[in-house]
Design goal:
It is a single chain. By secondary structure, the chain is of the alpha+beta class. It contains 17 helices and 16 strands. It has 2 domains: 211 residues, Roll (FAS1 domain); 130 residues, FAS1 domain (Roll). A hairpin with a 2-residue loop joins strand 13 and strand 14. The longest helix is centred in the N-terminal third of the chain and has 11 residues. The chain starts with a helix and ends in an 8-residue tail after the last strand.
Length: 361
């Protein structure tokens, strides 16, 4: 569960370290290769709070994003072993469907392979490039391709579907969409997908497990509070929930949609209001009004939110928020942009926003 939850940290500072396999350490090779590209990983001194450099104020390449996260060790080792680091550090743009370490563990178990055996498999490059599509395909575009197929860099096609508001790639679910890189987009998926020809060879003609996810071993989703705690970028929001007692229902069974402001969003709001965090949290009535204005009863996916373009919906607070779509992004009240959509929890869905919503007086 924690591996999935930590993926939220990709929004602002993603860190990926590949697991060592054999005598040669693919992690060190990946780091060396990434440092040799134009988009080398910035030093700690150059990093700002949101994970961007002060100089370019933008994300690194797909490899840079990959080389810092901590949840894709097998993937980065495989990319290094297959000689794809330079390619995925190039101009692109590319769309990468990135399986988590848990997804790779399930795939290796289903295939009866070790990580070392996978890295030495001659089909490794084909498996990896089956996870890559030329061009930048964001979540909104993927949703519009429901029921269609798309050619991968490997050459064979993947099927795209929308099920219960979630984008599916073959039988793998996108659990974290639209992670931006300077040369494309990463969508995190919960299973390794295999090209049909490779699946047939590896599975002895039985391709029913071509998308290698072990449902019994799949990580459990945490509650909305658990997801937020693991993310590390919602400390003010969580403190507000504790101060008002609203963390209790959001940590229990239910079905909610939460528009979650980041710590940076709260810092900007406090500055505009001329308040400290302590002063705001001491006014529990105001904080309760603000927090409940960020929640909806029931799960509203990004796809459903996009369909509400130009409409208003009632919040838990009772007051309404307006929803619009601007340049493909969902915007709330013409002021807060959804910067990460469809972060799943066991009791609802979180959409991360870049500003605090203030209820009408």
């Amino acid at each position: 569960m924690h591996s999935l939850l930590r993926l939220l940290a990709l929004l602002f500072s993603v860190s990926l370290i590949a697991a060592a396999c054999g005598d040669d350490d693919p992690v060190e090779e990946a780091d060396d290769a990434a440092e040799s590209t134009d988009a080398a990983e910035p030093s700690d001194d150059e990093m700002t709070d949101d994970g961007m450099t002060e100089e370019d104020e933008g994300p690194g390449t797909i490899v840079d994003v990959a080389v810092g996260a901590g949840s894709f060790e097998t993937l980065v080792a495989a990319v290094t072993e297959a000689g794809l680091v330079e390619t995925l550090s190039g101009d692109g743009p590319f769309t990468v469907f990135a399986p988590t370490d848990d997804a790779f563990a399930a795939a290796l178990d289903a295939l009866g392979l070790t990580a070392e055996e996978l890295l030495g498999n001659p089909a490794l490059a084909d498996i990896l490039t089956y996870h890559v599509v030329a061009g930048a395909v964001d979540a909104e575009t993927a949703i519009s391709l429901d029921g269609q197929s798309a050619a991968t860099v490997q050459g064979e096609e993947i099927d795209i579907a929308v099920v219960d508001g979630n984008v599916m790639i073959n039988n793998a679910t996108v659990v974290m969409p639209d992670v931006e890189a300077s040369n494309g987009i990463i969508h995190v998926i919960d299973a390794v997908i295999l090209p049909p020809t490779i699946a047939e060879a590896l599975l002895g003609g039985d391709t029913t497990d071509a998308d290698m996810v072990d449902e019994e071993a799949a990580p459990e989703l945490g509650t909305i509070v658990g997801v937020a705690e693991e993310a590390g970028i919602f400390t003010t929001l969580l403190a507000a929930g504790e101060a008002t007692g609203l963390s209790v229902p959001l940590d229990a069974d239910g079905d909610f949609t939460i528009f979650a402001p980041t710590d940076d969003a709260f810092a900007a709001a406090l500055d505009a209001l001329g308040l400290t965090a302590e002063e705001l949290l001491a006014d529990t009535d105001t904080v309760t009004s603000i927090l409940t204005y960020h929640g909806l009863l029931g799960s509203v996916s990004a796809e459903e939110a996009i369909a509400l373009d130009g409409q208003s919906v009632a919040t838990i607070n009772g007051a309404e928020i307006t929803i619009s779509v601007v340049d493909g992004a969902v915007v709330i009240n013409d002021s807060a942009t959804v910067i990460q959509a469809d972060v799943l929890a066991s009791n609802g869905v979180i959409h991360v926003i870049d500003a605090v919503l203030l209820p009408p007086a």
